[in-house]
Write a structure and sequence with these properties.
This protein is 43% helix and 0% strand. With 74 residues, it is mostly helical.
Amino acid sequence: MQIDITTLQYIDNKLDRKQFGCFRGKSTTHALIDMLHHWNSALDNRKSVRLLFVLDYAKAFDHVDHSTVVRKLI
C-alpha cells in the first residue's frame, strides 16, 4: 500500500525517519538491516543488546478450520 504523495508531503516532517512501512524504496529488509547495524554497533562498543521477541498467533487460527484441527488432535 502506497501513501498518496500530497498526503505524504503534508505529514513527512511528522514521521519518524525509522518508519519503513508504506514508503517506496523502504521495506522490512531495510528495517532488519537497520536493526542489525544498531545491534552490532552497540556490541562493538561493548554495550549490551536486549531484545524482546513476541509472537502473536491470534490471527493465525482465524484461517484454520477448527473441526479439522480437533479431528486431527483426537
